[in-house]
Design goal:
The complex is a heterodimer of chains A (about 110) and B (about 425). Chain A is an alpha+beta fold and about 110 residues long. Chain A is built from 2 helices and 4 strands, in the order βαββαβ. Chain A has one domain: 2-Layer Sandwich (Alpha-Beta Plaits). Helix content of chain B is about 70%, strand content about 0%. Chain B has one domain: Ammonium transporter fold. The longest helix of chain B is centred in the N-terminal third of the chain and has 31 residues. Chain B is mainly α. The chains are: A alpha+beta (about 110), B mainly alpha (about 425). At the A-B interface, strand 2 and strand 3 of A face loops of B.
């Protein structure tokens, strides 16, 4: 089992979500984060132009069985990309165990 | 002529009405912002601010004198550029209810509302500059010319066409242009999916929208109440009663209809129901009995629930429901004068007034559709109407204005 964390553009979220559904990744969590990165966002406030590195992104946590690892990563890479600086990153971790709270089952079965 | 107490009181009520109509712009803004996404909030506020400014300045330059040219041929008249105080303009010699200045500002506040209606329908995808150029021409020229046909004493007025406070002259004039603009712009990205389903794009602040609707109702006391054009005790109080009752029964009708249709209590339909009732009563607010007002508001409240669904299915993407509220209910309200009004079907058994009302709706509809098409199509072919796909997805605020509406909290749905 793998945990895949992805930080992506909010504007790419619905594309990524739909594409993940299409390849069979049907449940995951996400939340909005503010992040610092190489991208600068140009802004104007009360006549003063400035740029800020504080950018808003969406953070996805996806836990999948090993056979879904590569297809999940490929999907995010393909549908989360605009080609510009600031498209985000993907991190992959090993997961020790997983339980389904309702039934008490554990293991790969819980992710199907 | 000496200024009498009566004249002062009349004029005072008219000035209060000016302030009430003015606050409707805040109502329109709040409703539109609330029903749109947070990434476009600043753009919407910007449009609404600019419309008030454009409306008042163009009305000063040419609008007022196009709409009230005095004696004219009934189709087009122009009394000259700018404002100039006529002889006796500050006394009852000018009008029983108001001075020249009050007259100008009351009508000027009205003028801008027609463009505000369009603003809601085209929200979240129109280029700011394109919208402003359209507003300039439409509010500066088309609105006053159409208005002169009735309120300026033109040919529709002479035929007996009746529109008390502007179901047609204000609301439908905005609504027709909204239809044209929405067709030329196309729907927002993501509203119509490739498999044919409609994906609702939810507004980001329903409490703000509710504030806007209440402010609009509040402002309508001036919109309709001021259209009496004096502080005539009986007539103004009747108008406030019919206005409120129509709004109230509009809410109840929309509530019942939408519950039967969707099995849920949809607050946005209640909003639309109150506005539908208000627009519906506007054409005949001074002619109706309280019972008539309740019936008219109720019918408008039923119509609006179906109208919004039909407009959505026609792939006319109207984020705030402006076409349903202002055009469909504006037409209904105008026709209602021919049914429930003093010369209507129920009072006289004659369909003559209804025919005149329908003729007025048609003439103004054709004029507004044609003129707004010419203006918007020219803009589309020259500077373009719609923002780029990237701007639309990431939000007009950050791209056109370099700013987020809600800074410091992570609720902006752009990136």
């Amino acid at each position: 089992m793998k945990k895949i964390e992805a930080i992506i553009r909010k504007s790419k979220f619905s594309d990524v979500k739909n594409a993940l559904h299409d390849v069979g990744v049907n449940f995951f969590s996400y939340w909005d984060v503010t992040a610092l990165g190489n991208e600068r966002v140009g802004k104007v406030y009360r006549g003063i132009s400035f740029s800020t590195a504080d950018i808003q992104r969406r953070f996805l946590t996806i836990v999948v069985n090993d056979d879904f690892e590569q297809v999940t990563i490929d999907t995010i890479l393909k549908f989360g990309s605009t080609g510009d600086v600031g498209d985000g990153k993907i991190f992959v971790y090993d997961v020790q165990e997983s339980y389904r709270i309702r039934t008490g089952e554990k293991g790969e079965e819980t992710l199907r | 002529m000496e200024t009498t107490l009566n004249f002062t009181i009349n004029n005072l009520w008219m000035m209060v009405s000016i302030a009430l109509v003015f606050i409707m712009h805040l109502g329109f803004s709040a409703l539109e912002v609330g029903l749109a996404r947070s990434k476009n909030a600043i753009n919407i506020l910007f449009k609404n601010f600019m419309i008030v400014a454009i409306g008042l300045i163009t009305y000063t330059i040419c609008g007022f004198n196009l709409m009230y040219p005095g004696e004219f041929n009934g189709v087009f008249g122009f009394a000259g550029w700018g404002l100039s105080l006529p002889e006796g303009g500050l006394s009852a010699a000018y009008a029983d209810g108001y001075t020249y200045w009050t007259d100008f500002l009351f009508q000027g506040m009205f003028a801008a509302t027609a463009a505000t209606i369009v603003s809601g329908a085209v929200a979240e995808r129109i280029k700011l500059n394109s919208f402003l150029i359209f507003s300039l021409v439409y509010v500066g020229i088309i609105y006053p010319i159409v208005g002169s046909w009735k309120w300026g004493g033109g040919f529709l007025d002479q035929m007996g066409f009746y529109d008390f406070a502007g179901s047609t002259l204000v609301h439908s004039v905005g609504g027709w242009a909204a239809v044209v603009a929405v067709i030329l712009l196309g729907p927002r990205l993501g509203k119509y999916l490739s498999n044919g389903t409609i994906q609702p794009i939810e507004g980001h602040n329903i409490p703000l929208a509710a504030l806007g609707v209440f402010l609009l109702w509040f402002g309508w006391f001036g919109f309709n109440g001021g259209s009496v054009l004096s502080a005539d005790a009986g007539l103004v109080s009747l108008v406030l009663v019919t206005t409120s009752l129509a709004a109230a029964s509009g809410i109840i009708a929309a509530f019942i209809t939408s519950y039967l249709k969707f099995k849920t209590y949809d607050i946005t339909m209640a909003f639309n129901g109150s506005l539908a009732g208000l627009v519906g009563i506007t054409a005949g607010a001074d002619l109706m009995s309280p019972m008539d007002a309740i019936i008219i508001g109720f019918i408008a409240g039923v119509i609006i629930v179906f109208a919004i669904g039909i407009i959505d299915r026609l792939k006319l993407d109207d984020p705030v429901g402006a076409i349903g509220v202002h055009l469909v209910c504006g037409i209904f309200g105008t026709l209602a004068v021919g049914i429930w009004g003093d010369k209507g079907v129920f009072s006289t058994g004659s369909f003559a007034q209804l025919g005149t009302q329908a003729y007025g709706v048609m003439v103004i509809g054709i004029t507004c559709l044609t003129s707004s098409f010419i203006i918007l199509f020219t803009i589309k072919k020259t500077i373009g109407l719609r923002v780029s796909e990237k701007e639309e997805v990431e939000g007009l605020d950050i791209h056109e204005h370099g700013m987020n509406a809600y800074e410091g909290i992570n609720v902006n749905d752009n990136d």
